[in-house]
């Protein structure tokens, strides 16, 4: 099963009431050379300025982004192109947040979530491998964490590869 590392930026804490502004995805393989980036126009008038500021975009800029249905359909097509008939697994740094938005947007705008009802949490995986709930994997990233979702997803995928190569994580990529 192919792993897709995902990172999202939003203008608030939950989908529906607030909007996913952008997201990035990286097929986890040795090259990390297959990526997807989407920018989505707001679906709600609600937004929290401090949350939006993390994305680096103004509200006016986000209003020029593509509609959610177009972006999520393109993402579904990208997933199909890189995964073929294999069911993808969503993994992220904070899957409680990232997966919530991705799942909601897929179900709401496309009608189906290709990731199904499950996802994996990179931070929890690392804590389990270290047997320490206070450990953090972020030092394993190579790509700088910039809050551009492709950079952040790539850095997280790099950390997963380090866990495989040097820490003995058993994973098929």
From TrEMBL:
Full protein name: 3'-5' exoribonuclease
Source taxon at top rank: Bacteria
Taxonomic classification: Bacteria, Pseudomonadati, Bacteroidota, Chitinophagia, Chitinophagales
GO molecular function: exonuclease activity; nucleic acid binding
InterPro entries associated with the record: Ribonucl_H, RNaseH-like_sf, RNaseH_sf
Annotated source species: Chitinophaga sancti
Domain Exonuclease residue range list: 5-159
GO biological process, one term: DNA metabolic process
